[in-house]
Amino acid sequence: MPSVMLRKREDGKLLFYVAKKDLEETIESLEFDSPDKWGGEVVLGDGSKYYFEPMDTPPNIPITLQAKRL
Amino acid sequence: MAAMTREETEALIQEVLEVYPEKAKKDRAKHLAVNDQSLEKANKCITSNRKSLPGVMTIRGCAYAGSKGVVWGPIKDMIHISHGPVGCGQYSRAGRRNYYVGTTGVNTFGTMNFTSDFTEKDIVFGGDKKLAKCIDEIETLFPLNKGISIQSECPIGLIGDDIEAVSKVKAKEHEKTIVPVRCEGFRGVSQSLGHHIANDAIRDWVLDKRDGDDSWQTTPYDVAVIGDYNIGGDAWASRTLLEEMGLRVVAQWSGDGTIAEIEKTPKVKLNLIHCYRSMNYIARHMEEKYSIPWIEYNFFGPTKIAESLRRIAEHFDDTIKEGAERVIARYKAEYDAVIAKYKPRLEGKKVMLYIGGLRPRHVIGAYEDLGMEVVGTGYEFAHNDDYDRTIKEMGNATLLYDDVTGYEFEEFVKKVQPDLVGSGIKEKYIFQKMGVPFRQMHSWDYSGPYHGYDGFAIFARDMDMTINNPCWKSFQAPWKKTAASEPVKAVA
Question: What Cα–Cα distance (Å) separates residue B188 from each residue in A62, B168, B185, B283, B463?
Answer without folding.
Answer: 27, 26, 8, 21, 35
